[in-house]
Amino acid sequence: MADAPTPAPQATRAPQGGRDGGGRGQQDRRNRRPEIQPEEKQFDERTLHIDRVARVVKGGRRFRFRALVVVGDRKHKVGIGSAKGADVTAAVTKAVEVAKKNFVTVSLYKGTLPHEVEQKVSGAHILLKPASAGTGLIAGGVVRTILEVAGVQNALSKSLGSTNKTNTAYATLAALEHLVPASKWITSVEKKAAAPKKAAAKKEAK
User: Fold this and answer.
1) pLDDT band of 30, cuts 50, 70, 90
2) What is the DSSP letter of 76?
3) Helix, strand or coil for residue 194?
4) Residue ranges per domain, the chain?
């Protein structure tokens, strides 16, 4: 009896897109892509207050939102902005743009204020005092947020007037703006040294 013919060997196909083939290639390609890291914000943006306002028109009332925002770099710059918008997001965005256009440079001395300062805006009356290292910010509400964003680490504060957040915020900003840097201080020694020179200058003038 003749032997049966042996079957021809079947050609093996390379896996296409299987778990062990194309899948690994796709994963490798994904891993090769550079990871996009989120950009760090240059400024610290804080929302101080959001209020709903209304305008009376012919058809009734038209409601909008007003946002009060403070923006700072936690070093020496801080700004306050207030704007209105159809919704909260639009109002906050507009207020941030206004704040960035009205930056104020704050003079700091060893992480605190260089001297005591007091300022009044409308009914709001704010008093700020320097504090020793480790004291922290003894302030509340709007004043504390503004001092944090401005980069003040130790300070004492007191609100002596109205509690209106908008006026309090602008009074705090005005107080920070009126700070005199330590390099421009006039000490008692400098005054005594300058007194004889003034007296001599008066005698020469006579």
Assistant:
1) low
2) S
3) helix
4) 44-181
Q: Indicate whether 59 pLDDT > 90.
A: no
Q: What is the pLDDT of residue 123?
A: 92
CA 29 – CA 67 distance, rounded (Å): 46
Average of per-residue pLDDT across 87-101:
94
How far apart are alpha carbons 92 and 46 in whole angstroms? 10
Q: Which residue has the tokens 């009914």?
A: 123
Architecture in CATH for domain 44-181:
2-Layer Sandwich (3.30)
Q: Which long-range contacts (CB under 8 A, 24 or more apart) does 91-99 make?
A: 91/50, 91/64, 91/65, 91/66, 91/67, 92/47, 92/50, 92/67, 94/67, 95/67, 95/68, 95/69, 96/45, 96/69, 96/71, 98/69, 99/69, 99/70, 99/71
Q: How much is the pTM?
A: 0.69
Please report how the helices 165-177 and 141-150 are oriented relative to each other, as an axis angle in degrees rounded to 10. Answer: 40
| Res 158 pLDDT > 80 | yes
Strands (E), the chain: 44-57, 60-72, 77-85, 104-105, 117-121, 124-130, 137-138, 155-159
Q: Which residues contact 194 (CB under 8 A, 6 or more apart)?
A: none
Q: What average pLDDT does this structure show over 140-164?
A: 92
